[in-house]
Design brief:
It is built from seven helices and 17 strands. With about 325 residues, the protein is α/β, with parallel strands linked by helices.
């Protein structure tokens, strides 16, 4: 009996969440005295997974799976789990995996716990800690089914190298035409140096930036920090920034190590979507902005004065410490 993970990838590269999932699975596997198997889709080279403890890779290569289709991918994972006789399937909390998890759970008649933020609290009974109420609380969930499925909250465990001698095996699951009732017509992707999904640091701007012509201040700070840029809902609604940069409960949720909010008042939907970030820094001219109530650090002042000075200080610091 091994643990199965779905190692997500895009454009021939593994997503960062795949390595976090592998690190988590390896630690659980050590406790259970078992091994970690990963299933990949259309990845020619999966050797990188062995750095994080994966013992075996099931490589699925199929042109029909070039575009993500939840039902087809769920069938792949289900058949991989059945082939390996696994009792624990681990998925990430990306948009794709949030679609996959319930479908896989139904296919395997498995109990499913989402937003898991730590190693199992108990193995008998099987209990895990999860976030609840838009990350405002935690609960302990018990899964009593024979097969169990967990989705790991992004950036909740970390990435740890634990090299193993992984073996690789071609796997050809049965995929029917019924799996492709939904077809991908086109995919529009945002461009940028760092994506929000993979970023450890996010610099986000709100309507306090006063217009798209001022976004260079956000981008300059993000560049120094190696961060992704993001925005609040009003900014994307106004067309200042693409919708792909909208973070929050109604946009993309983020769980970064550092989240810097500039000129964002802190609507409840925005805070709910970034609340899992470990350190939150707020820069706002309004001392009564709601965001300050949840911030770890706050700066009251004019962003057009603070951002250039902060960026220059960080550049000088990096120059002295490189």
């Amino acid at each position: 009996m091994s643990i199965l993970i779905y190692a997500e990838s895009a454009e021939g590269k593994f997503k960062k969440v795949a390595f976090e999932l592998a690190s988590y699975a390896k630690k659980v596997a050590e406790t259970l005295s078992t091994t970690v198997t990963a299933v990949t889709v259309n990845m020619n080279d999966a050797s990188e997974l062995s750095k994080y403890g994966v013992d075996k890779v099931l490589k699925v290569t199929n042109d029909k799976l070039a575009g993500f289709t939840a039902k087809a991918y769920a069938d792949v994972i289900k058949q991989a789990a059945q082939k390996e006789n696994v009792k624990l399937v681990l998925l990430s909390s990306t948009t794709d995996s949030l679609y996959l998890a319930p479908l896989v759970a139904v296919g395997l008649e498995a109990g499913f716990a989402s937003n898991v933020v730590g190693l199992p609290v108990s193995l008998s009974p099987f209990q895990v800690k999860r976030t609840a109420f838009s990350n405002k609380a935690f609960n302990i969930t018990e899964i009593s089914t024979d097969v169990k499925i967990l989705s790991l909250g992004k950036n909740s465990y970390g990435i740890f190298e634990n090299p193993s001698a992984a073996t690789s095996e071609d796997f050809s699951p049965s995929i029917s035409d019924e799996d492709f009732g939904v077809k991908v017509q086109s995919v529009e992707k945002s461009s940028g140096k760092v994506t929000i999904a993979d970023a450890d640091v996010v610099v986000s701007g709100g309507s306090g930036m006063k217009g798209p012509e001022n976004w260079g201040l956000i981008e300059d700070l993000a560049s120094v920090l190696g961060a992704a840029t993001a925005c609040s809902k009003p900014v994307s609604d106004l067309g200042w920034r693409p919708h792909s940069e909208h973070v929050g409960q109604t946009g993309k949720p983020v769980a970064t190590n550092l989240y810097i909010a500039v000129g964002i008042s802190g609507a409840i939907q925005h805070i709910a979507g970034i609340n899992s970030s470990k350190v939150k820094v707020v820069i706002n001219a309004d001392a009564d902005a709601p965001f300050f109530k949840v911030a770890d650090y706050g700066i009251v002042g004019d962003a057009f004065d603070i951002l250039p000075r902060l960026t220059e200080k960080l550049k000088a610091f990096k120059a002295q410490n490189n």
